[in-house]
Design brief:
- With about 300 residues, the protein is an alpha+beta fold.
- It has one domain.
- It contains 5 helices and 17 strands.
- It has a 12-stranded mixed beta sheet.
- A hairpin with a 4-residue loop joins strand 6 and strand 7.
- It is globular and about 65 Å long.
- It starts with a helix and ends in a 13-residue tail after the last helix.
């Protein structure tokens, strides 16, 4: 059990390196970090139980990266525990690969916006494989309206747009001249502090802004992730959630020991053995009849 925990901690620490890796292509110092509350009614038959996640949007001069703040908090906690129980940070552990399945609240995807190239890069992980999805920044066909309101001491202006089958209402501020926003949102003459669809099924609610609070750069994932389309990745994700161990096993040499499954719940707690199997089965049956993107673009 302790060996598996160590492997899992190392997995979390590896994930934490994603936004601080080395690649000069979009290398920019972090100037500010905005935090948002993401709310998603992913199952219209269970509207009172939406997904809720705290998210980070790290901002460089022109580029940005959007990531899971709840997961990063868990990573820091596990790293601190690991350092307290060893002579230094864990760099390697003994044991084979594990199939890590996470609840939606522990999603480890990263979204990089590079407006100068009109490029969006999404990084994601399934089991032991990293994936990279490159695409053009979405065109929300924004119409800027005259309505204004104050959000977090910033004067914001309203914009209405359409993307992926939803009408979006966004509030942006020119007081923060970043042409980015949470998730894939962007393309306005200021930072998007709040956005929601017309039915309030998907919401990005601004919480606070920190300026120059951390060392690091806006940079993409290290290594060589597999290039894949978003639609192909989503199919692979469904297959992985149905059979995580089998999916990981397919990447291993013939005769390798079976890859054990681990499940992380909404609080970041690690479940193993039969407990993990039950949680993974329940997660696979969790309905998502209302994805953020209702139609492919």
């Amino acid at each position: 059990m302790s060996s598996m925990i160590n492997i899992y901690v190392s997995y979390l620490i590896f994930v934490s390196l994603i936004s601080f890796s080395l690649n000069a292509q979009i290398n920019e110092p972090i100037l500010a970090t905005a935090t948002y509350k993401f709310i998603h009614v992913n199952d219209t038959n269970s509207r009172t139980n939406p997904i809720k996640i705290e998210m980070f949007l790290r901002l460089g001069k022109t580029n940005s990266v959007y990531s899971n703040a709840s997961l990063e908090t868990k990573i820091k906690e596990e790293r601190r525990k690991a350092e307290q129980t060893s002579s230094g940070p864990i760099r390697s552990v003994q044991g084979g690969p594990i199939a890590v399945v996470s609840s939606a609240e522990m999603n480890s995807d990263y979204f990089f916006q590079i407006p100068s190239k009109k490029q969006l890069i999404r990084y994601a992980n399934l089991g032991i494989q990293d994936y990279k999805m490159e695409m053009t920044l979405p065109d929300f066909k924004w119409v800027i309206e005259s309505d204004t309101r104050t959000i977090g001491n910033f004067v914001c202006q309203k914009a209405v747009g359409n993307y992926a089958g939803r009408q979006w209402i966004a509030w942006f501020t020119t007081e923060l001249p970043f042409q980015s926003g949470p998730w894939k949102l962007g393309g306005l003459p200021g930072l998007i502090l709040e956005a929601r669809d017309a039915k309030n099924e998907v919401q990005f609610i601004f919480k606070e802004l920190f300026k120059n609070t951390e060392q690091g750069n806006i940079e993409p994932i290290p290594g060589k992730p597999v290039a894949i389309s978003e639609s192909a990745f989503e199919k692979s994700k469904k297959n992985f959630e149905l059979d995580p161990s089998g999916t990981v096993q397919a990447f291993l040499p013939p005769g390798s020991e079976p890859a054990p499954s681990v499940y992380t719940d909404a609080s970041g707690k690690m479940l193993t053995g039969n407990e993990a199997k039950a949680a993974i089965k329940k997660n696979a049956n969790r309905k998502t009849n209302n994805p953020i993107e209702l139609v492919n673009n």
